[in-house]
Design goal:
InterPro entries: NTF2-like_dom_sf, SnoaL-like
Oligomer: single chain
Pfam family, one: SnoaL_2
Largest sheet: 6 strands, mixed
CATH architecture: Roll
CATH class: Alpha Beta
Strand content: over 45%
GO molecular function, one term: isomerase activity
Helix content: 25-40%
Order of helices and strands: HHEEHEEEE
Number of strands: 6
Radius of gyration: 14 Å
Shape: globular
Keywords: Isomerase
Organism: Gracilibacillus ureilyticus
Number of helices: 3
Strand order of the largest sheet: 2-1-6-5-4-3
Length: about 120
């Protein structure tokens, strides 16, 4: 049985594959930092909002969470994301996300993402 925190992080990750930017933005602090190791770092909710608009795509995504570790202040998830474009071409990505929560409101304050195409 999932805990409340595990359900929160599952829903947050599912929001990315569903394109639910409202849920994503409502789950993070205004001073969010998202570091995508090897590529970019996004700082602040306005920069995140802009990046999410750039991620809109006609691709279909499927999320597979392999495991999740959570406590009151942090979480770590790893799994696979499967992407299929209009032409039926598939790509697969392995990911690990590390989250830190802001103690006052329980929102995500920092994300560190490792993503590899497999």
């Amino acid at each position: 049985m999932e805990t409340e925190k595990q359900a929160f992080f599952r829903e947050f990750n599912e929001a990315f594959v569903k394109g639910d930017t409202d849920l994503i933005l409502s789950s993070v602090t205004d001073d969010i930092t998202w570091r995508m190791v090897g590529t970019d770092t996004i700082k602040g909710i306005d920069a995140l909002r802009e990046a999410l608009q750039g991620m809109e795509s006609s691709n279909q995504f499927e999320l597979e969470i392999e495991f999740m570790i959570t406590n009151e202040k942090e979480a770590a998830l790893n799994g696979l994301i499967h992407s299929t474009n209009r032409d039926g071409e598939q790509r697969h990505y392995s990911f690990c996300d590390i989250y830190r929560l802001k103690e006052k409101d329980g929102k995500i304050n920092e994300i560190i993402s490792y993503v590899l195409e497999v």
